[in-house]
Amino acid sequence: MPIDQSPMRRTCFFALALVISQLAGEPAGDSLEDAAARAALPETWTIPAAPAAELSPAMAPDPATFLGWPRSQGDDGSRRYSALNQIHRGNVRDLEVAWTYRSGDGAANLQSTPIIVDGVLFATTPGLAIVALDAATGREKWRSRFPLEKGKLRLQDQPARRGLVYWPGNEQASARLLVGAGDWIYALDPRTGARLTGFGEAGRASLPTGATASGVVFDDTFIVSGLYGDVFGYGVRDGRLRWRFHSAARGDDFGAETWSGPLAGANGWSGLSLDHVRGLVFVAFGAPRPDMVGIDRWGDNLFSNCIVALDARTGKRRWHFQDVRHDIWDLDVCAPPNLLTIEREGRRVDVVTSLSKAGHLFVLDRETGRSVFPVRMRRAPVSTLPGERTAPYQPDPEVPEPVSRMEFHPDMITDRTPEARAFVEQIVAQSSYGFFEPFAEGKANLFMGARGGAEWPGAAVDVPTGRLYVTSNRHVSRITVLANNEQERDPRHPPSAGEQHYVQLCAACHGAGREGLGMAPPLLALKSRIPEAGIVDIILKGRGAMPGGLVHEGAQLDELMDFLMRRNQPPSLQVTHMAGAGERPRYIFDGFGKLFDHEGYPAIKPPWGLLSCYDLNTGGVLWRVPLGEFPELTKQGVPITGTTNFGGATVTAGGLVFAAGTPDERLRAFDADTGEELWQAQLPFAGTSAPAVYAVDGRQYVVITATGGQRVGGPSGAGDTYVAFALPR
Fold first, then answer.
1. Would you state the pLDDT for residue 518?
2. In Å, what is the CA distance from 22 to each residue of 41, 220, 469, 729?
3. What pTM does this model have?
């Protein structure tokens, strides 16, 4: 929660904290939590809304901001709003393909929305390049390729993985494209693609936690978050590091006491936004690591699962707002915060949003971080996992209505067919579920989690009205935590051949200790989790973000499997990690599983993917419609269900909302007032980012990254395509 609170609110908050402390006590390191003490706490309490009279007065952005597209999120406020209206409700049905571009350098799931400046479109390609295209024709003007320095493609190695940004320059420095790739920030000449050698060393500056989202430029400081945590401020002209904010509080940092053990970080892939007038940058941070297991990080773990407001000049924290406390479910605050202006009690006020995988949508005052609407807190269960401690309370907001509820309940089980229902009921009967239900060792836990709420593309803002358009998923996570008693190699002995293969081919994504990094799952305790033949199949063929063919059948594969299965390894350190032996127990989880029926469809009643419209002046939902369809179900007479989607929406002054990101490989346009679908077009591959909207020589275009692959899937697999639509000439 923000610390900028009224004296009365501060008193209430600390009084409640004292009650919790007195009731709950401090259990011994490996003891179970005290269920009776937790049950004695009030079931709910409410963080009051900030009075309307105390909210930040509106400071209108320059209207010209919304006529271009110089950042992948549209503008620095991450609004994805275009004031262009040549394409509107009355003529959107006439849209046609204006041009198609194929990079020809591979196939990959590209998640970056292009940017467009002065008639030139800048985009990323599967071949680790940035290209400049004539935005009116799609003709390539130049191509700049980035090196793959680690020998294996990591998440951060895709240039501009989730966005890039253009800076127009000033009297002291020329215009530049600022692109994250690998462990670096690059500055490129927009005219040629060449590196600007005055930036950092040979045109690049070190980003030690890995590149991912696009940054923002405030005055002459380029601010960007790192894939594995922290926020950095660089001189936009020279690339020198000016400040660094730690996403896992440490030392003398505010919040350092909320970590009890080794710092596991809070990832920064969610993105950030900038209020130029106030000089505030708003950063979204994801869950702490490791996922699903928190026994080595007791406490609320600031600044994980937070929106943090930083002084753009210094990187100093101004306020923070935390969603889930001590997150053991991977419920990241997962989207760039949206800046928008709403009306409260007759006053126009400036706010910022927080969206999460838990499905929560919070609306916060831009200067203080106080919630515009009351936030109900609900008592959460204790853990039965030895060594784990759960937070006493978690958010259970009522207004705005959540994008999706985190809690799974059997009432949600699919009724698509009797066979599907019976199949799912059998699984549910053997699983745990409930409001922030913690994990029990060896038992599957069901919750609306990593694919249950908002996703990384976030939301779009209709600037004049204060409406928010959010794409979201409704899938049930099915995850099991297991004891991990594997012992590691004694460092006095050399590594096996299999460990050497692992370090070379796998460690960049899965971690040196097989603990998992980012979205790459842990590989600990594999022999008790997955049949050996299944592991071999994944290694040879790939799965999700992991490509196949890195290892071929033969001695190398056999040696790698020996290492993963803990066979024929050098002597281990003789350390006992069981409870009561002086160390906390060790656990691992079995990967990011989902609950499906016997035919592979989501295990709950539809909709399974949504596009929602919120009126944030009131916090109410104006409409919700399914996003995406399964054509085979439609042919069977099943109403449109919605599908998994990973693209995000874009809204225009023409009264339209454009969205793709569905495995049916379509781009759709909806009426912004009603949610009625007005148009759709078939794409060569599934759309994999939010559309960008721009104009060249008086003609308006809508362009989409259409590369399919990975989680979006689609029948065409992965590709290398950008498609632009426009009205006929």
1. 60
2. 10, 49, 43, 72
3. 0.88
